[in-house]
Amino acid sequence: MKIIHTENRYNIFEGSMTITDQLEAKVYSVRFDPDAGLYLEDYGEISVNEKKIYGQHQEKLEKIFRAFGSFNRNFGVLLSGEKGMGKTLFIRMTAVEALRRGIPVIVVDKYYEGISTFLRKIDQEVLILFDEFEKRFGEDHNTCGINNGPGMGFGMNHQSISGMMFSHQTELLELFDGISSGKKMFVLTCNEISTINNYLIDRPGRIHYHFRFTYPTPKEIMLYSRDNIKPEYQDQCRTILNYSFMTKISYDALRAIIFEINSGVSVEEAVNDLNISRDVRSSPEFAVSLHFRNRSSSAPQMNMLNFFNEDFASIAIKYRKRKMKQRVITIDFLLKDLEFKEHSFQFKLPVDKIQNIYCEDSRDNDDYDPEEMLEKDGLEYILFEKRYF
Question: What is the DSSP string of 146-196?
Answer without folding.
Answer: SS--SPS-TT--HHHHHHHHHHHHHTTHHHHHT-SSS-EEEEEEES-GGGS
